[in-house]
């Protein structure tokens, strides 16, 4: 796992992320359960999601990273590990993922802070296919996602992960996922706010409980269904 950058000065990166929170800094480390409206008010006054900015030519996407730079991994060096409560832990190269059945989804990308990119195509491997290959053991309840930025994490319940619209995505708009957008492979959790879609995906660990992800420690809903957690957005799947 150290090869995924976890030997790097993670503490400093995490601090940079926390400093980026601004007014939310006061909530550091605590689990803010019932202040979602408050959180959204703070978000609209100051976008807290770390280093952000409009990407030139990004087609309406904003760039988000809680680490201080864009981590790079070549297509040749890329590996996705699948481990934890599985019969066959493994490691998949980009070529391995390309060789598996692919799914292309066209959906609206929706960030919880309000911006949206309508009708955008993502292609990749269904998480359920990776889970079937790995052989999920009894007692498994959730997935934990780790990233080769060494900082970001996300989670899904096993039931959520088995949905057909949950992908390990390697193409966006029918082209390779760029490094800025989390390439070579990022999570694409289509029915959820975009913070679920962990960029620079490096590991999937099957666990017996949901371990909330990076932003979820600062109050974001652990179940990030679009339209259900901030009560304001339409559900693009309905
Ligand atoms: N590794 C990593 N993944 C991440 C983030 C991040 O900071 N680091 N930010 C999340 C958030 S809040 C959003 S809105 C999207 C932004 O993706 P984009 O930069 O491709 O627009 O990535 C999500 N995945
Ligand atoms: Mo976001």
TrEMBL record:
SUPFAM superfamilies: Oxidoreductase molybdopterin-binding domain. It comes from the Bacteria. Residues 70-215 form the Oxidoreductase molybdopterin-binding domain. InterPro entries: OxRdtase_Mopterin-bd_dom, OxRdtase_Mopterin-bd_sf. Pfam families: Oxidored_molyb (PF00174). PANTHER family: OXIDOREDUCTASE MOLYBDOPTERIN-BINDING DOMAIN-CONTAINING PROTEIN (PTHR43032:SF4), PROTEIN-METHIONINE-SULFOXIDE REDUCTASE (PTHR43032). This is Molybdopterin-dependent oxidoreductase. The lineage of its organism: Bacteria, Bacillati, Actinomycetota, Actinomycetes, Kitasatosporales.
């Amino acid at each position: 796992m150290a090869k995924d950058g976890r030997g790097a000065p993670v503490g400093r990166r995490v601090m940079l992320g926390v400093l980026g929170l601004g007014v939310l800094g006061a909530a550091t480390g605590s689990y803010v359960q019932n202040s979602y409206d408050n959180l959204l008010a703070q978000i609209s006054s100051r976008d807290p999601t770390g280093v952000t900015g409009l990407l030139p030519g990004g087609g309406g996407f904003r760039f988000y990273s809680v680490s201080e730079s864009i981590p790079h991994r070549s297509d040749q060096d890329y590996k996705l590990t699948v481990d934890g409560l599985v019969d066959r832990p493994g490691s998949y190269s980009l070529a391995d993922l390309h060789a598996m059945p692919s799914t292309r989804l066209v959906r609206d990308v929706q960030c919880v802070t309000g911006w949206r990119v309508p009708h955008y195509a993502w292609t990749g491997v269904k998480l359920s296919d990776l889970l079937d290959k790995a052989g999920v053991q009894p007692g498994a309840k959730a997935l934990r996602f780790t990233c080769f930025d060494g900082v970001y994490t996300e989670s899904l319940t096993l039931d959520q992960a088995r949905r057909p619209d949950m992908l390990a995505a390697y193409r966006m708009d029918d082209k390779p996922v760029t490094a800025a957008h989390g390439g070579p492979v990022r999570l694409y959790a289509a029915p959820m706010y975009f913070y679920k879609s962990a960029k620079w995906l490096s590991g999937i660990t099957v666990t017996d409980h949901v371990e909330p992800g990076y932003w979820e420690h600062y109050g974001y809903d652990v179940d990030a269904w679009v339209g259900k957690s901030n009560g304001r957005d339409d559900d693009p799947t309905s």
